[in-house]
Amino acid sequence: MTFQHIRNATSVLNVNGKSILIDPMLSDAGELPPVPFTRSFRRNPLTPLPVPLQFFEQMDALLLTHRHFDHLDKRALSILNKKMPVFCQPEDQAFLHNAGFLNVTAIDQSYEWCGIRMERIKGRHAPGFAAKLLGPVSGYIVSTPGDGSVYIVGDCIYTPAIEETFREYEPDAAVLNTPRAQMLLGTIITMTADDIVRIADLFPSTRLIAVHMDAISHCTFKRRHLRSYLKERRLEHIAAVPEDGEVILL
């Protein structure tokens, strides 16, 4: 199993001979508007794609955690193969059908495709009222008997339910969206560097990968900040912080 970080939350998980595209934001730098309800007026993304658009013609399936524009944008909707299998949370199924995808499966609890098991984990994007404003979000445990398991956590804050998921599944690897993204009043709507340390302390056997940094304007914690934070605490070993385009062997 390999994990290729593309940009922001966009990634490719290669498992059991299949390439699964996760949360595709494929627009060029500056093609998308500022994130609403935040303090930033910069257009997005802040960085270009590290691979050509033709790269995404090779995908076997699409896995979507939720459909905010930095996880599924108009460029992705326009260029991706509408015949490939798409897996999503139930709340996004109708939208994807209306967008022209012909093979959409809403995962309520679990689903198996080509020997790959996907189990959906309900998430929480923010505390309090902000969670309703941002809408539903999901994570997924993706696994095979031979390759092991990876937890795609998605845009989730740290909650007891997330902790319980780690305890129950004991994933071999976990991908954490950890840019400390903030809304107008300072509400944190993703995980933080402290959450990485907390997860690593509780579940030292799970390999951690930190993504969702440097590409979107309301994500205030950069890769250089996270690396510095971990280095100062002599914790560089607890989480990989991949560059755009980097491939990690799981």
Secondary-structure-derived class: alpha/beta
Which architecture name does CATH use? Answer: 4-Layer Sandwich
- State the CATH topology: Metallo-beta-lactamase, Chain A
Q: Summarize model confidence as the mean pLDDT.
A: 95
Structural notes for this entry:
- The chain is α/β, with parallel strands linked by helices.
- The chain has one domain (2-244): 4-Layer Sandwich (Metallo-beta-lactamase, Chain A), CATH 3.60.15.10.
- It has helices at 74-79, 93-98, 129-134, 160-169, 193-202, 223-232, and strands at 2-7, 10-15, 18-22, 61-63, 86-88, 104-106, 110-113, 116-122, 138-144, 148-152, 173-177, 207-211, 239-240, 247-249.
- The protein has a 7-stranded mixed beta sheet. Strands 7-8-9-10-11-12-13 form a 7-stranded mixed beta sheet, covered by helices on one side.
- Strand 4 (61-63), helix 1 (74-79) and strand 5 form a beta-alpha-beta unit.
